[in-house]
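Input/output pair, single chain:
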Amino acid sequence: MRRFHVYDSRTRETRVFAPITPPRVGMYVCGMTPYSAAHVGHARTMVFFDVVARALRRWGYRPFYVQNVTNLDDKVIARAADSGDDPLALADRQFRDYLASMERLGVRSVNLYPYATDYVPEILAQVRVLIEKGFAYRSDDGSVYFEVAKFPTYGSLSGQRREELRPGARLELDPRKRAPEDFVIWKAATPGEPSWESPWGPGRPGWHIEDTAMTGRLLGDRYDLHGGGVDLIFPHHEAEVALAESATGVAPLANYWMHGGLLLLEGTKMSKSLGNVAVLDAVLDEYGPMPLRLYYLNVSYRSPLEFDPARSLVEAREAYDRLAQPAQRIAELLERGGADREGEEISEGVEAEADDLVERLDTLLADDFATREAIAALYGWGRRVGELGSLARYSGASLESLYGPYEWAEEVLGLFVRDASRTGGAWSEIVPVLLEARARARARGDFAEADRIRDALAARGIRVQDGADGTRWEFDTSG
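Output:
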């Protein structure tokens, strides 16, 4: 396993990465609240952590990458009310669209996409423990709140002091709370909204506790890596720390915290709630997935990134064309003649340069995932390949050597993908998630939605068969 360093948001220093139980790496990234289409701000976070998981696998680690789906919250309910949809059905549909967008973008490293509502038993158990330990209390309406004052280190992740968390921009006065900074972990039921029975009355989970219930079940009381956008540090990740560590007595919740910079539109965070978003699929349609990945990765992941499609994405598309040209030429020649094609051999010196560059690329990424520097090195390799003259005169073995750095970029950065069959079996990961959504639709009697999922898969050449022993799927090779 390769030794590497990451910047840890919790300790505010760059640290050597040391898994709890190597080579396994428990990895959790906050995912979508699927009430509307994914935008390019979401995609920046997901592309970066896709690269993290790809690199870990290359370096000999075994990441178990979990990305949650908040399939029920106030925003989902409000959007469903506006459209006349069932909230859970709306979330299912929007999440399937999100998966399709991630597939287009080459984000294929996630092992599990758990739905929040599938973990209600774990959420109820954690709420019960927090009440028993004195960290949470029931209000008169049946909601349950976490009492921030009972957790002395609240604010350590974000660097905020608890006494500064008073009513204002972030906090509102609420007579049900003992203090303004307290937050809800079980929301009392509202007529017409989905709810579950609990010892405190019917209700539904609060936002923060869904993550700690999931990670406790899937990754344990303490795990290796938690990621997300920098905008989630407070209050969401701060609340996660307080909930999990109060419930379990185990600290820290995550050994490393990684936070990506925001995507900005005219200097303001891109956000669906603000309405200043660029829909991901529309951008992919116009500029393509590879230029967009390059745009995200050609900057430090912790830096803010200004989104200006008329300039930055046009430039990214032109930059990708330059970067990809030698890779595409080598790939074309190999596709025609294969690795056994005859021709001149490159010198041992050039072959060594290619091998050394692959090692250098790994070294660059091992320094807090310096994708920008790795991309600069790939541009340099393109210039070196250009100095070799006509590539058509070289043997297949030589071309394979020259392609080595681009193969690294394909594997780790998700660029220059030659063959979809080499991308890690994306459908083998995505189809089970879609079939789970279909099963949920059938369970609630929404057979029209279940049929839409089946038909969408059929349109992609995937046959779904229901039988007494469950549901099976296979690629339809009849056509």
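The radius of gyration is 24 Å. Residues 426-475 form one domain.
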